[in-house]
Amino acid sequence: MPLDGKDSKTKTNVSADKPTTAIDRRTAVKAGGAAMMASLAGCIGGSGGGEGGPIKVGLLADRSGSISVYGVPMTSATELWQSEVNDNGGLLGREIELIKPDPQSSNQQYQNLARQLILEDNVDVLMGGITSASREAIREDIVDENQQLYFYPALYEGGICDEYVYMTGPTPTQQLRPLVDYMMENFGSNVYTLAADYNFGQISALWADRYVSDNGGSIVGEEFIPLSVGDFGSTIDRVESADPDWIMSLLVGNNHVSFFSQAESSGLQKPMASTVQIGASYEHKTLSPPNLEGMHSAWNYVEELPTDRNQEFVDRFYDMFPDTQYINQHAQSQYISCLLYQAAVEQAGTTDQPEVNKALESGITVEAPQGDVTVDPATHHLNHSITLNRVTEDHSLEFINTTEGVEPTWLQERCNLATESTWDDPVSEFYQPE
Amino acid sequence: MSTVTTVLDLLTIIASGFGTLVLVALGLAIIFGMMGIINLAHGEFIMIGAYATALSYQQGIPLVLAIVVGGFVTGVFGVIVERLVIQHLYDRTIDSMVATWGLSLIMTQSVLIVFGPTLGGIGTPFGAVSYGSYSASIYQWVLAAAAVFLLSVVYLLFNYTEYGLHAKATIEDEETARSLGIDTDRIYMITFFVGSLLAGVAGGLFAPTISLVPSLGGSYIIEAFVTVIVGGASVLVGVPASGLALSIINGGAAQFGGALAGRVALLVVAILIIRLLPEGISEYITEHIRG
């Protein structure tokens, strides 16, 4: 049975993702120095973190290295918001100052730069992080430790329940439910799951399997593939001999993208579904048609989303950044992070972080490009509307349906930050499915 | 499923693995085996070949010609690198690693800045062939055929041309070769050109099966080094022998245990071979054939 032994594997301990963060002497000295500098600055009359001067937004988004495909559009989205706010007289009459060091796709850099942004630059809000590993590198030991308001925009495996952290991307539980429903209704109940062999892929696959079985379907095969594998000959064979009705793709990264061209050129023609492809690294633009024809994906946002509000956003984005290749989920969720912060500061009337946090926890709603989104006060996640799309033969997207206000229900059963956690007595958990 | 289709299927997977390993390793083996330069930017040379091929193809050049263009662009790029950097590093193996590693970072980031995070892909030509309940991509066999073809070209180059003779003399004894009037500097330059060109052609051949991103070289570099080290010093014996051995192990294990099992088997066997035959397979083969 393909599910054998998977439960033990999916209880991936968080610590595997969490680099050791023993503070060495140099960092301690640096931090001490920074604190001294900060207190000196305070004496002189207060730059960052105070009520005068610009509002400091710290952004950690990789603009070089292997995950710059996400970091570059995230940076652009933040700069777009910055220029829009500053051109309209600023936020509370104060300019937005964006501090955006490049973590270079290195988790070590994330730690150094997060400390620098918080302790030396004294930012009012911290944003960014792309991989779960980069987020976990800074979340507990740096963000929580320093009581720093932090927005994380990437889609991720779900489960974070943290007083100081807001997750503005979707989680698999939100994307999978509408997707699995549609696929099983239209294509059948026998599913083959292909997933990347690490935390995100394992947990996403577990959710996919659960929704499939809950709907009365069966997993006829499942394979976890190391991120370094780019040759799918044997995988394609096994899928063919299992003969599923459709394939659930939770493949991640550039090596895995080769699966789709290899499957197509091998004549493996099955409907596919994914919560990873299309919206994040726009494979329908980078693979040549018709490699991805018949791929169904569920997203809170894709660039092609056919609404007037999104079209205006896309136009503004390309006006400012004409070289953009695609506005992906990460860019739009980063833009949501900015809008939420802006709305919360306006509501609170201050950049004082506990006050801004309270405003966010009041269940604030903003008009995002994807549609209106509301903060779920209990989990600090968003209620996303999830739109299903299908890749056509010429690789354009055909929209199927939209499910409004999909809540992070699984986490809501475990996490209640609004009532059980305060700024000074915070909850910080990372729940994993069993 | 019948035995025939299973065997045919396994053969396809082994052929495809053999093609990939030989193509990624050949250029590296020539540069490493003949010049002692450990080129950690080899993956990025493959990337240059893939990009040049894709860009030429998008200009309307037929794929085969575009792959040749990709090879030559990479070869010329290799010569520039050799003149500027590598020629100062002969006999400095460790330094060459550091320099080429730095070079790989510069190349990846430059391509990212110039072309953005991705480049539009090329469709895989030739389509599929079906047998029984299976089907396979014809292009996988084309890769294997191309690998055999390039091996033959390299064989002819080193055994039937004046350059080949001079190159072998230079490896055997550089000083004597120089005193006999061979311009060893030039030989090194040409050798680096040939190695780079082969990396570029490999990139061009892979371009239709992968998505083009600046960091794509990173996915080949480990396989390339494992193949070269398992193969040993002799390029023309070592590369095909180790390519075949590793692809049989990888393909066989992957067929029965999944991609992860294939990857594990490949690396375990590589470690065993390096432990038991420190000079590589080629040493063992040449010793036993020559007695």
Concise overview:
The complex is a heterodimer of chains A (434) and B (291). Chain A has helices at 6-10, 14-17, 25-44, 68-87, 107-120, 132-144, 172-187, 199-214, 233-242, 254-265, 283-286, 308-320, 329-348, 353-361, 409-412, 417-420, and strands at 55-60, 96-99, 125-128, 150-152, 160-162, 165-167, 190-196, 218-225, 246-250, 272-274, 295-299, 365-368, 371-376, 381-391, 397-406, 428-430. Chain A is an alpha/beta fold.
What does the model show?
- The complex is a heterodimer of chains A (434) and B (291).
- With 434 residues, chain A is of the alpha/beta class.
- Chain A folds into two domains: 55-170 and 305-385 and 406-430, Rossmann fold; 173-274, 3-Layer(aba) Sandwich (Rossmann fold).
- Helix content of chain A is 42%, strand content 20%.
- Chain A has 16 helices and 16 strands.
- Chain A has helices at 6-10, 14-17, 25-44, 68-87, 107-120, 132-144, 172-187, 199-214, 233-242, 254-265, 283-286, 308-320, 329-348, 353-361, 409-412, 417-420; strands spanning 55-60, 96-99, 125-128, 150-152, 160-162, 165-167, 190-196, 218-225, 246-250, 272-274, 295-299, 365-368, 371-376, 381-391, 397-406, 428-430.
- In chain A, strand 10 (272-274), helix 11 (283-286) and strand 11 (295-299) form a beta-alpha-beta unit.
- In chain A, helix 5 (107-120) packs parallel to helix 6 (132-144).
- Chain A is globular and about 65 Å long.
- Chain A starts with 5 loop residues before the first helix and ends with a strand.
- In chain A, 55% of the residues are buried.
- Mean pLDDT of chain A is 87; it is low at 1-49.
- Chain B has one domain.
- In chain B, helix 2 (42-58) packs across helix 8 (184-206).
- The termini of chain B are far apart.
- The mean pLDDT of chain B is 88.
- Chain B has helices at 3-35, 42-58, 63-84, 93-115, 138-160, 162-172, 174-179, 184-206, 218-231, 235-257, 259-276, 281-290; strands at residues 128-131, 134-137.
- The radius of gyration of chain B is 19 Å and the shape is globular.
- Chain B is mainly alpha-helical and 291 residues long.
- The interface between A and B is large, with 46 and 50 residues.
